[in-house]
Amino acid sequence: MSLSQAQKKAFRSIGHHLNPVVIVSENGLSEGLLAELDRALADHELIKVKLALPERDDRAAMLEELLTASGAERVQTIGKMALLYRANPQANPKLSNLKRFEGHHGRH
């Protein structure tokens, strides 16, 4: 399910305006965090996650665990922020960031 460069560019454009909906702290991955991540991806498809860990290597490892656990795909990582995407064919148009911002930011 690899994203094309054009898709990633469009998603980055949308993601720029999003606030993080999931924040991962040094406590690591809990069942509650994974459930919230799954719900956020199901509702919004494209989400921003904040990795509140001081070490770059720890953030990278945590992000890999998140991607594996959620089945999401990384669109972009900048510092402590990661933009994740997981398609949901039954996404609610009022909640999905892709549907809400369709046509915005140069997308058609």
From TrEMBL:
Protein name listed in UniProt: Ribosome assembly RNA-binding protein YhbY
Q: Which PANTHER family match?
A: RNA-BINDING PROTEIN YHBY (PTHR40065:SF3)
**Per UniProt, which keywords does this protein have?**
RNA-binding
Q: Which residues form the CRM domain?
A: 1-97
SMART domains per the UniProt record, alphabetical: CRS1_YhbY
- Keyword RNA-binding listed? The answer is yes
One Pfam family of this chain:
CRS1_YhbY
Annotated signal sequence is none
NCBIfam families according to UniProt: RNA_bind_YhbY
